Amino acid sequence: ATMPPLLAAMSTAGRHGVLVKNAVVLERLADTSVVALDKTGTVTAGRPVLEEVRLLGEAPLEHEQVLRLAGAAEYPSEHPLATAIVTASRQAKVTVTGASDFVSLPGRGVTATVDGHRVEVGTADRLAISGPAAQRARTVAHTMTDAGHTAVVVARDGVPVAVLGVRDVARPEAADALHRCTTLTRTPPLLLTGDNAAAAARVAASVGITDVRAGLLPEDKVAAVNELSQRGERVALVGDGVNDAPAMATAHTGIAMGQAGTDVALETADAVVVRDELHAIPTVIALARRARRLVI
Ligand code: ADP
Ligand code: MG
């Protein structure tokens, strides 16, 4: 017996590494007019590496102390930046367990209590830090950012003690896969990221994306999707993080990167990329279109 075209397409998509939740999703994917992607973990492989630690303050902490505070505070986080920091802490033989009162602030960073101190780790522009040390932290962060790093500030009891520079490069197949998206939808893909503009621009340039929206909180990603929808676009939103889930739910279709994907993203998504590579995106859109032509 021959399978109905939509079912057959869902099965083919599965073989190409995309699990499509149901046939309705496949029809919606066929309508995609533009692909919007998250940066960290989506356009990048999401395996960032901590490359720089700049100590701040009048009486700087030891390098190991900073890795202790940051590693322990990040240990419960699922974010790729957290993984980079925890890995570096472990490599320095620093204990990363024992934090309490962990709070994750999507698009901003984390806070936790470590060794009796209130520790914040996150983006320089959105942390609750002030005073001359905060100004210095932001200056250092901007220098790192200009050098292509994602800069993350570590604060202890409200005082910045270090800036960490993390590097995350685009997936090797990203430029080709995104070019295929442009050919399919006739609209170039765009980047929606919570990271800073310089880091975003660098990754975007390396994969041929020109439309970049940076510094977005989860609700700003939703607003960006809504704005596109109001212009008549049918957005396929590809992401991996907790911060992407609301925008995924708002978009015409939400697609989660399975490997790096957080539970919230996987549950919210209409389709999940289980093979860890971006070619799955244009492939599933093309399959969806072909299936629809067979149905009509
Ligand atoms: P993206 O949209 O590119 O996936 P996010 O919205 O997840 O990025 O994060 C945006 C920014 O918030 C990061 O570049 C970082 O500065 C900060 N951030 C988010 N989560 C964390 C974390 N767990 N630790 C440190 N910084 C974080
Ligand atoms: Mg992400």
Structure report:
It comes from Salinactinospora qingdaonensis. Keywords: ATP-binding, Cell membrane, Magnesium, Membrane, Metal-binding, Nucleotide-binding, Translocase, Transmembrane, Transmembrane helix. The structure is a single chain. This protein is of the alpha/beta class and 296 residues long. The protein folds into 2 domains: 168 residues, Rossmann fold (3-Layer(aba) Sandwich), CATH 3.40.50.1000; 119 residues, Calcium-transporting ATPase, cytoplasmic domain N (3-Layer(aba) Sandwich), CATH 3.40.1110. Helices cover 43% and strands 23% of the residues. It has 12 helices and 13 strands. The strands form 2 sheets. A 7-stranded mixed sheet has the order 1-13-12-11-2-9-10, with helices on both faces. Strands 3-8-7-6-5-4 form a 6-stranded antiparallel sheet, sandwiched between helices. The longest helix is centred in the last third of the chain and has 16 residues. It is elongated, with a radius of gyration of 20 Å. It starts with a helix and ends with a helix. The mean pLDDT is 93.
Which CATH first-tier class of the largest domain would you pick?
Answer: Alpha Beta
The helical percent reads: 40-55%
CATH-derived architecture of the largest domain: 3-Layer(aba) Sandwich
Number of strands: 13
Mean pLDDT: 93
Structurally, the number of domains stands at: 2
Largest sheet: 7 strands, mixed
Order of helices and strands: HEHEHEHHEEEHEEHEHEHEHEHEH
**Number of continuous helical runs:** 12
General shape = elongated
Strand numbers in spatial order across the main sheet: 1-13-12-11-2-9-10
Write out the CATH superfamily name of the largest domain: HAD superfamily/HAD-like
> In percent terms, what proportion of residues is strand?
15-25%
Low-confidence stretches: none
Structural class: alpha/beta
Bound molecules: adenosine-5'-diphosphate, magnesium ion
The radius of gyration is: 20 Å
The CATH topology label of the largest domain is: Rossmann fold
